[in-house]
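ok here's 3-oxoacyl-[acyl-carrier-protein] synthase 2:
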Amino acid sequence: MNLKRVVVTGLGALTPLGNTVEEYWTGLVNGVSGAGPITKFDAAKFKTRFACEVKNFNVNNYMDRKEARRLDPFAQYAMVTAEEAFQDSGIDLEKIDLRKAGVIWGSGIGGLQSFETEVKEYTERGFTPRFNPFFIPKMIADIAAGHISIKYGFRGANYATVSACASATHAISAAADYIRLGKANVMITGGSEASVAAAGVGGFSALKALSERNDSPETASRPFDKDRDGFVLGEGAGALILEEYEHAKARGAKIYCELAGSGASADAYHMTAPHPEGLGATEVMQYALEDAGMKAEEIDYINVHGTSTPLGDVAELKAVEKAFGEHAYELNISSTKSMTGHLLGAAGAIEAIACVKALESQTVPPTINHFTDDEEINPRLKLTFNTAQKREIKAALSNTFGFGGHNSSVIFRVIEE
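and the structure:
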């Protein structure tokens, strides 16, 4: 069938590097670390006492106090970034078909802070069952998509994707497919997460997934470095407005780039560990290229999952070499998690935005905190260590992988008439 083309016409970001897209991007190209001591709860007794928190965020600057109380922070973040993206797109709600406008939003966990608070208060009250009437609506992972659709009156497809750290990329891919198939003209998509809480830090710490470099939080996220010891937990959100190409052109929209294709695969291997040879990761990049109708040689930049874990980083780079062959040594690779930390279900959203901005500025953001080469990593790979690099970028690919073996990739390219 004749598939519609999908373009990006709006962006919104709330990250540990800044509370707007421009602040976020400035932090990335300047190699700024968003890590620091945890302020959201007393982490003194935890093995990991730092994270990449959102900073200087006052929800009352974005919505009234009554509305804010009804939303878990992950949904607050979603609403804020969706609004930035919507304003950036310049869409006039009176001039679009709201039946063909939808929301698909990703979150790996949802309202963890609300769940933690309610259970804690339940036990402190002597197990008296007096729960907040908004407890369930605040907690469920789909509620962010629901609130966004209510705000803008979008009556098309509306749901959440939950695939751990691949959630937002799966959301973006699904939203694009609705447009490609002619089922939608406009989609708000992305992801949000607010897991810097005792349960989040404690849970990932128990899995031995987090860095314990408490003496130097700003250098703790060090993808591909020999001495990496785990990821740094992050929080925030990213939103993209996807639009059918002719629909965007007809209203004179500013078009950032085209979303060319996407892929999804499973490792079918282990609950938390990646396939050691990067099998699923290899296949998901190949699927994305096939979906986009592109050759490996057409990709100039890969924003890798690159979490800073001993096993994951090596497996992903093996996958890149298998999927791209000799071209793997011509393209640039970087992990922006070295600066933002790992936003879990929101990672794919802010990393997609990094790819879009890389295309716009023809700049590859760096992988910071590289100190010692890892002999298991091929030195021919261009991992863009420590400093951003200017280069021609016509197409960029973003990878996200989640616990459970979930893999998703998406490709953005410069728009061609």
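+1. The two ends are 20 Å apart (CA to CA).
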